[in-house]
Design brief:
Strand content: under 5%
Distance between the termini: 125 Å
Number of strands: 2
Order of helices and strands: HHHHHHHHHHHEEHHHHHHHHHHHHH
Shape: rod-shaped
Largest sheet: 2 strands, antiparallel
Strand order of the largest sheet: 1-2
Number of helices: 24
Radius of gyration: 51 Å
Amino acid sequence: MPLPQAVTPGPELQNPKAPGKSQSLPLSTRKSNSMKEPNAHPGDTVKPSLSTLKRTLFRTSLPASTHRPKDDPGLFRRSSRFLLRSLRRALDEGPTEGHPQVTAGPEKPPSATDGVSRQVSAGTRPEDLEPQAESKSVADLITERKLLKAFEQLRHLETRLVADNASRTFAQDPTAYARRAMDLCLHYDGMAAEIGAIVREALGCEGADRAALAEVAQVVRLEEEAHRAPQAGGDFLSTPRHWRQLWADTVRLSAQERVQQAGAGVAPGAAEGASDLAQLLAELGGLVRRDLQKVRLEMQPAYGATDFPVWETYLRAFHSAVAQRLQELARGARGCEQLYVLLDWAANVYGSPDFLGTPDLALPTEPLPPLLEPALWARLESDYTSFLETKITSCFDSILRLEQSRWEAGEDDREVLQGLYHAPLSIDVHMLVAEHVKAAGAISAELEATTLQICARALCLFVPRFEKAFLASAAVSEWYLGAYINACAELRTSLLARFPGTMKELEKPLVAATNSFQKHLLQIVQQDMQPLFKALYTKSWLTLDTLRPLMDKVVDFAQHLEHVTPPLAQGTLQELHRFVVRAYLGQVLRPHERFSGLDRVNASHKMNLDAQAISSTFQGLGSKATWLDQAILCVAEILGETYKDDIQRHLETLIQSYPDIRRDHILAILALRRLGRRRNQNLLQHSQDLLRAARESRPAPPPVLFEEIEVRASVDVLIACI
């Protein structure tokens, strides 16, 4: 980096052969103001020399400071502190004995100390220095970034100055030594500033200046060899200048500058959308990736075989800078989307093994610190889950509104997928849960478990709300009920199988909703069939086929069940089978007309035919409720039995097959048969003993049939009881 030229140039290194001219250390911007003034003026004292020195230190520090961030004091400030300490010690000691200090009048300094940065002192041979005509000044070498040559000259002048000081050459004029040491200090500081500029520019330019970086590494190594330890006397000269630390600090600061520049034009606000933040992070990732690839492929080879930990230093510098940038972004992140974008980028983009895009990029031997502190990460996850809980509840509300819009629009196109009635409800719920659980699982297992619990709680509240809203709508039909039964079955099968531990609490509301939909599905067909049962066990029933319309309703309803998931379709069909048998028996046990004689025998025969028709119809439809086949047949045989002693056998068969039968049902059957009082009492007593024994021998509750049949106490029943 070129150094700005001074307004008033100072004396340059002179040819020792030229008469009347002295050799001095050339300076550009970093020359002290003392070089603009004569060495002595009438009336000069030590006090104005100190004032001049302070102004010089202040002014010459300005150019160097423009290349450094505010938090880096620079080597110049440290070197100036040591230099002032040396100067004060020299001034306190004062002139040596026999050499009084000049306090007034014009000063005529000796030739060895003429000029601010004179190179030739007592005992120095002129032929040891190159003439000015054949070499450039140190300032020009630094400006041209010929750091090795500049360091060699500075080191040579420093060695000479230390030797002169040790030989007490400056005993009469300690300020001359201080000014010449200050010149060296300023040039060393200028070289340090140029080293920092080279290191900073290496990342910003398109191609790294390998020659300049190689010189930086060599100069740093040479300086460490030249200045191995501080001087015992506290003198600034020959003191280590810690350029290796300067290099590391510059790497760190340049990485921070680069990271802060990424996405400078993007300002993510508190909006719900996260596109701005995603764009910023994408730019940040691309910049870090390109810079680190450049470090590995271009800059690290430039340092050659030096012991500079180039890759590790740059990697840790960028890692620290990215962590600082993410902390700043985390403070301004708002909403579920922005929080997730931030967490996902940290965990999956930056934390990906192929983030740098090159598999041969090695990581440091020691693991990098976490990108986000555990406390900050926990806070971000907590904020994310809080927003997520509200968002998931809102998503379920949207699903409900979408289904309601379909009901209101009257959409009943009977969509069938894989042979089953289908509603989008199941797919919407599955996508909602799977999307959020998968996204959370990509960040951490803990966040995945928390998200799954949020989804389970929200779904447990959604299912009963959805059930209530649908049953209260005008869209209740066989198609919708079948589709929602299938949806509940799909949710139970998939969610409970995939997340058995977390989704176990979801089983109860899903089972309740399924049963409710099945019940309403049966109610539709039952309401259509109920009036047809009134024609049974009447005079016209004896001669007409009043059962056919009932069976036609059953067959039509079974066509809907073909599009319901098989286990639930089978259960619904069995419930319909039980309803038909129960309603048939209820009509028989509560007759509007009573038959006797031949009509009773014909009624018994008709009931046998109906029982066979009901059994064959449901078996043809696939019903497995064969336990219902004996109910109507047993009652028919009791009514048509001509040998009264066999009635007890038929009653035993009925009680054993249906232990839920009660005393009232047996009385109603006996009333239809119209037996004598004594026989009725014997049969009733025997039936009660059988019922008691059946209840005691069955630990599990029996299937329900007669228990749901209500019989009224008629005169005939009362007569049968007496």
